[in-house]
């Protein structure tokens, strides 16, 4: 279950001493939350104007991006400045601090454990990892990856995690390892080669999605049912259907929503019945696939039904 701070008055950074904490100033915010039910991932979304971190370490990696302003920090006697669009990639057990540079900064950070990133590497390479990923620099310039990471981090904060966020997070961390980490080079070669046809595994995955479309489904569970690694499953399903597992699940949810709307169920209830977050989520994904809002779709069927009844008393 996601852990959110409703009254965000203090911040305790992961693995830092509580003595390093200080009350947040006006205009500052900090939201600490967990995503991914199968392998919980700690995340932080924050905006700081005056907050200063004391020197501290993490057992995990620190991976994230600056979305506004500039942060400065010391590592090994060297001062670094991370600005908008920069990616921070700090290895475990590295002593660092952190404070605003200029008028402050906002960032989105995740704290993947060593096991978490090893699992990503193993999953892609489909074999036991031979080492631990690491970064040779704490600041990386990769605007495209920064944008995609910020987008999925924001989505995860809003939704609490889903099959969609699982897919997008896996992709972001894979790209991070491939482009910027001292990771197993076989990851790249496996990702570059065409995915083999895995008809039986794909069928198991799709059958499960069809039968459980109203439920919250995570990628690890689906991969276990299919009997193949997550990365390979995504590519196999896309190759077989033209859709990723999440896109397939959304498509099935919209099919069910059309039936329920046609039957006269209220859109808010349809959203819940189909496993969507809320009516706003239903509106967005329904219109993207049907071309009209759920309300317009339902009204058209109601009008047709009334016309039919009047013509056939």
In short:
The chain has 313 residues and is α+β, with helices and mostly antiparallel strands. Helices cover 45% and strands 20% of the residues.
Description:
The protein has 313 residues and is of the alpha+beta class. It folds into three domains: 18-186, Jelly Rolls (Sandwich), CATH 2.60.120; 194-242; 253-313, Homeodomain-like (Arc Repressor Mutant, subunit A). The protein contains eleven helices and eight strands. The chain has helices at 114-125, 143-159, 163-180, 186-192, 199-211, 219-226, 230-241, 245-262, 267-273, 279-290, 294-311; strands spanning 29-35, 41-48, 53-56, 62-75, 78-83, 86-90, 96-111, 139-141. A hairpin with a 5-residue loop joins β1 and β2 (41-48). The longest helix is centred in the middle third of the chain and has 18 residues, at 163-180. Helices cover 45% and strands 20% of the residues.
CATH superfamily of the largest domain: Jelly Rolls
Strand content: 15-25%
> Largest sheet, described in full?
8 strands, antiparallel
User: Which residue ranges are poorly predicted, with pLDDT under 50 across at least 5 consecutive positions?
Assistant: 1-22, 306-313
What characteristic shape results from the CA principal axes? globular
Could you report the average pLDDT, rounded to the nearest whole number?
81
Q: Do you know the CATH topology of the largest domain?
A: Jelly Rolls
Give the % helix.
40-55%
Radius of gyration: 23 Å
CATH class of the largest domain: Mainly Beta
Number of domains: 3
CATH architecture heading of the largest domain: Sandwich
Number of E-type strands: 8
Number of helices: 11
Q: Strand-and-helix sequence, N→C?
A: EEEEEEEHEHHHHHHHHHH
């Amino acid at each position: 279950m996601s852990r959110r701070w409703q009254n965000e008055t203090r911040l305790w950074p992961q693995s830092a001493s509580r003595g390093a904490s200080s009350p947040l100033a006006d205009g500052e915010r900090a939201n600490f939350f967990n995503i991914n039910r199968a392998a919980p991932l700690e995340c932080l979304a924050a905006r700081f104007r005056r907050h200063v971190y004391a020197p501290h370490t993490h057992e995990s990696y620190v991976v994230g991006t600056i979305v506004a302003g500039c942060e400065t920090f010391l590592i090994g006697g060297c001062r670094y400045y991370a600005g908008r669009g920069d990616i921070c990639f700090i290895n475990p057990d590295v002593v660092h601090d952190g404070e605003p540079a200029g008028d402050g900064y906002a960032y989105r950070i995740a704290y993947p454990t060593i096991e978490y990133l090893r699992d990503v590497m193993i999953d892609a390479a489909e074999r036991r990892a031979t080492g631990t990923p690491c970064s040779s620099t704490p600041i990386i310039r990769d605007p495209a990856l920064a944008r995609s990471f910020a987008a999925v981090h924001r989505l995860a904060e809003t939704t609490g995690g889903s099959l969609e966020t699982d897919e997008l997070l896996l992709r972001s961390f894979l790209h991070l390892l491939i482009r910027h980490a001292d990771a197993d080079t076989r990851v790249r070669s496996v990702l570059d080669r065409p995915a083999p046809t895995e008809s039986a595994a794909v069928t198991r995955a799709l059958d499960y999605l069809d039968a459980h479309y109203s439920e919250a489904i995570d990628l690890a569970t689906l991969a276990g049912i299919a009997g193949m690694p997550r990365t390979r499953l995504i590519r196999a399903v896309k190759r077989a259907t033209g859709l990723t597992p999440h896109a397939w699940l959304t498509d099935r949810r919209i099919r069910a929503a059309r039936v329920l709307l046609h039957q006269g169920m209220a859109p808010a209830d349809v959203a819940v019945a189909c496993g969507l977050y809320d009516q706003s989520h239903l509106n967005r994904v329904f219109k993207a696939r049907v071309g009209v809002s759920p309300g317009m779709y339902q009204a058209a069927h109601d009008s047709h039904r009334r016309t039919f009844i009047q013509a056939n008393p």
